[in-house]
Amino acid sequence: MSALLTIDDLAVSYRARRERRTVVHGVSLELQRGEVLALVGESGSGKTTIGQSIIGLLPEGGRIERGGVHLELAGGPVDLTKLAPRAMQQLRGARVALVPQDPGTSLNPVQTIGDSVAAPLRIHRWGTKEAIRRRVLDLLERVGLDDPARRARQYPHELSGGMRQRALIAAAIALEPDLIVADEPTSALDVTVQRRILDLLADLRAELGSSVLLITHDLAVAAERADDIAVLRAGRLEEHGAARTVLREPQSDYTAALLADAPALSDASPRLPRLAAQPLVTIDALVHDYGRRGAGTGADAFRAVDDVGLQIAPGTTHALVGESGSGKTTIGRALAGFHRPSSGAIRIGELDVLAERGSRRLRRAVQLVSQNPFASLDPRRTIGQTIGEPLQNLPLGDGGVRDRRLLAERVAAALQQVALPAETADRLPRELSGGQRQRVAIARALIIEPQVVVLDEAVSALDVTVQSQILELLERLQRELGLTYLFITHDLAVVRRIADTVTVLRRGRAVETGTAQQVLTSPRHEYTQALLEAVPAPDWLRDARRGQEARTSTGQLEVA
Amino acid sequence: MSATIASLLPKRAERSGRPNPRATLVLAIAVLAIALAWAVVPWLFTAQDPIAGVALDALQAPSAEHPFGTDATGRDLLARVIFGAGNSLAGAAIAVLVGLVVGTAIGVLAGSTGGLVEEALMRVVDVLLAIPGLLLSLSVIVLLGFGVTNAAIAVGVTSIAVFARLARSQVVRVRRSDYVEAAFGSGGSFLAVLRRHVLPNSLGAVLALAALQFGSAILQISTLGFLGYGAPPPTPEWGLLIAESRDYVATAWWLTTLPGLVVAAVVLSANRVAAAVRGGTA
Amino acid sequence: MPYAVRRTGQAVLVIVATFVLAFLLLHALPGDAIVARYASPELGLTAAQLQELREVYGADQPIWVQLWQSAAGFLTGDLGTSLQSGADVEALIATALPSTLALASLGFAVAVLLAVGIAVAATFSGAEWLRRAFRSLPPLFVSIPVFWLGIVLLQVVSFRLGLVPVINANPVEALVLPVLTIAVPIAAPLAQVLIRSIDDTVAEPFIAVARSRGASPRWLLSKEVARNSLLPTLTIAGVLFGELIAGAVVTETVFARTGLGRLTQEAVATRDIPVLQAIVVISAVGFVAINLAVDLVAPAIDPRLRKAVHA
Question: Does the keyword Translocase apply (chain C) (predicted)?
Answer without folding.
Answer: no
